[in-house]
Amino acid sequence: MLRHVALSSLRCASRRASTLSVKALSALPSLCRSNGAVLASRNSPLQTMHFSTDAPAPPQMTENEFMELADETLHDIQSWLDGIEEMLEESDIMFSQGVLKIDLGEHGTWVINRQVPNRQIWWSSPVRYDSHSGGFYV
After folding, report:
1. What is any one of the record's Gene Ontology cellular component terms (predicted)?
2. Which of 50-74 are b and which e, b meaning 16 or more Cβ less than 10 Å from the residue's Cβ?
3. What's the pTM?
4. Average pLDDT over the chain, rounded to whole?
């Protein structure tokens, strides 16, 4: 049987999404149900998807499996960047304890590291993106 998100919740989310603020869009996942999803996009502020049954949970990767895969990925990125240090005198690329630091001198520093509890790889950048007149961040 299909479950539906309550109409009042949709109206509330639609009002929040119409402001196109980051706060409003980040509130949308709270409307998700175990067998449905609420999505926002530029063309349509609110779309819903319903599933007839709950989606099975993805298999969990063990901490050791994740650390091995993350380190392999970070080493691959480091290998891909080989040669940059010869091209830019001020550059320095280092990998240590799950953290890949890419310092490109005046061009900025990037840090890519593993987040074991979340099973994610995070990337910090010297580049930031500001809001455009429409309220979207690019």
Report:
1. mitochondrion
2. eeeeeeeeeeeeeeeebeeebeeeb
3. 0.51
4. 70
